[in-house]
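This section describes the prediction task in plain terms. A model, or a person checking by hand, is given the sequence of a single protein chain and must write out its three-dimensional structure as a string of tokens. No templates, partner chains or ligands are provided. The sample shown here is typical of the held-out split.
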Amino acid sequence: MSMENVQRTTLSNGVSLIKAPRNGARSMTLLVLVKVGSRYDTPKLSGASHFIEHMMFKGTEKRPTTLHISQELDRFGAEYNAYTGKDITGYYIKIDSAQAEMAVDLLHDMLFKSRFDEHEIQRERDVIIEEIKMYEDSPRDHISELLEANLFARSPLGRGIAGTRQSVRGLNRRALMDYHRAYYVPGRLTVVVAGMIPSGIDGWVRQTFGRIAKPRVPNDQPFTCFKQPGAVRSPLALQKKKTEQTQLALSFYSLPYGHPDRYAVTLLSNILGGTMSSRLFTELREKRGLCYAIGTSSESLEDTGAFTVGVGLDHGRVEEALKAIYTELNKIIQEQVGKQELSRAKDHMSGRLALAFEDSANRAEWYGRQWLYVKKMEPPEAVLKKIKQITGSDIQRVAREILNPKRMVIAAIGPGAKPEKFKKLVNWK
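The expected answer:
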């Protein structure tokens, strides 16, 4: 990876514009990040951020229907979509850079000229409720919501991003438009262009996103920071359900996005369950035949994070699997990771980063999220330099901090997910 020539400017209205060029590219990604997500939703408006994301694709005065929007992009073979997270909403178009002016105009039109048609809102409400049902019917997806409800209890982070069926039914046109007006404001917007960047991009962005008016009276609210407790109040999140296998997951509090130890946690996750040669994969699948797949993940938000182990397995082997997982967690707490294993994990992260940066969409996300969360834009070379300096002692230190049984939630979905069965499995031996 060569050193990045990344530039950031602040437009006169407060919108941030980031340009991350890549030599030799023909395509570009236009990404607009809005600093709003489900944690900003009030209980009454639960699901509003996600609902608004859906409505941005439903037509503007210039492009009256979803079909007008999709046909314009499909004509040029573009990839496009959007997503809502806990504290961020993103919209992107990946397209031939020759069509950059159209892409900028279209995305601005969608985000700031959408009609919020009453009929479309009614129809989309049904679509979102079906989406909620779909995730509830998928144990691999739904288990994360069970974990978060207990891990982040009494916090908006513990609520589902899409809201509930009841809250979605209660969201009307006026509430959605008021919410959009409050949070889709210049100070919360970051526009990122990555890949092949045409010479006219600055002008096109200024003529569109640069002309968004600042609100005379701001109506957006900062989120309430989550304070991690010393111990989880409810360590079990169980759903008794007829399934072919039991979905099992363990989650711990982890570190926020800007924490200096975040990359040590990423390495910890890689060593434990990030690859097919990781400790948990080798022990549970290869040696014991307990599962088809097992993995770990480390998610960081602005003020907190979650470290999760997830596996699907036979109903009768849950206790064996949990004990095997506990053994591996204890081992990485008690014994320092060896130099060879640590070196392999670092090489893996370096290789994955190199592959990711071939893609303009990943480049856009990399720089956009950094700026939105911590007001920095470190190139991958700087991060890899930090990763190379991480020692086995650092891994052991963060493992001891994060893998704390008192700060753990166990979630399970399956016919045997009963409290009396799992209470005895909570404590580590």
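For orientation: Residues 58 and 409 are 39 Å apart (CA to CA).
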